[in-house]
Design a protein that fits this description.
Largest sheet: none
Helix content: over 70%
Structural class: mainly alpha
Amino acid sequence: TAVSVLVARYVGAGQPQVARLRATLGLKIAATYMVICGLAFVFVAEPLLRVFTHDPEIIRIGKTLFIFCAIYQLFDAVFIVYSNALRGVKDTFWPSVVQISLCWTMVVGGGLILALYFPELGVGGPWTLGAIYGMVLGLYLLKRFNTGRWQNTIITDEPHGVDMTTVAAVEPMGQ
């Protein structure tokens, strides 16, 4: 969310290069955090799972799922940062279309196909699709942001041309 605000702020101030730098900084911070979480998922999986259960089968499955989560983390950071960066410059239509399309085709459709025709893959099948979905979506948003088309966006304080001071004067808050 901070990236969204900072990108909008600097694009609105006519400083798109600073906006790009802030988005990159946001990615560095988010990626560092997510990689640390991913490493914890891999190297501290069993103690984390033992907080909830001592069932060896659930721990075995949980450790497998934590590996998928660890892989997904970095691409999730890319998705989170660049979807918010694009949201800050009101570039939401195509990212939403791509996200919905990928979700329905890869995750829902692909998950159904795996469940029906490849049940032997167990939880690994759908999670592989989920990880690929996160990778594709994150890389798409990064590429879209890096095109720089958003740099000429006009950002104003008035959403949809509405002067908020007029709205506030008409309906005072708390009354």
